[in-house]
Design a protein that fits this description.
alpha+beta; two-stranded antiparallel sheet; single chain; flat; 4 helices
Length: 112
């Protein structure tokens, strides 16, 4: 096992542990337990995005599937943003200072 693989496995284990710990905390007054599950999934995703343990698109897909499987939101709500005509794409852009992520809207008319 390479050092990079070991690092990713440790990062993913930490993300799962922290996400589950938050999801299992009893919901404070005024919130349902589903809110805590959503928060746990969000924290899990943020840790994965920071550590790049799994690709971003896989993380988002897992998050949406888990929302549906746990009954947090209906399927049409979880995957509704993927069915529209607006297309967003993420790309890496080289700059003189270094790499940065930018959102680039695809499909705007040229005169806007």
């Amino acid at each position: 096992m390479t050092k990079e693989t070991r690092k990713k496995l440790i990062s993913e284990a930490a993300a799962i542990a922290v996400g589950l710990a938050i999801a299992l905390i009893p919901a404070p007054g005024g919130l349902e337990q589903k809110a805590m599950w959503t928060m746990g999934l969000l924290i899990w995703a943020i840790i994965n995005w920071m550590t790049n343990a799994i690709p971003d698109f896989v993380c988002i897909f897992i998050m949406c599937c888990t929302w549906v499987l746990l009954g947090i939101v209906p399927f049409t709500t979880a995957f509704g943003s993927f069915s529209g005509t607006t297309v967003w794409r993420c790309r890496n852009k080289e700059r003189t200072v270094g790499k940065s992520r930018t959102l680039d809207y695809a499909g705007l008319p040229a005169d806007l």
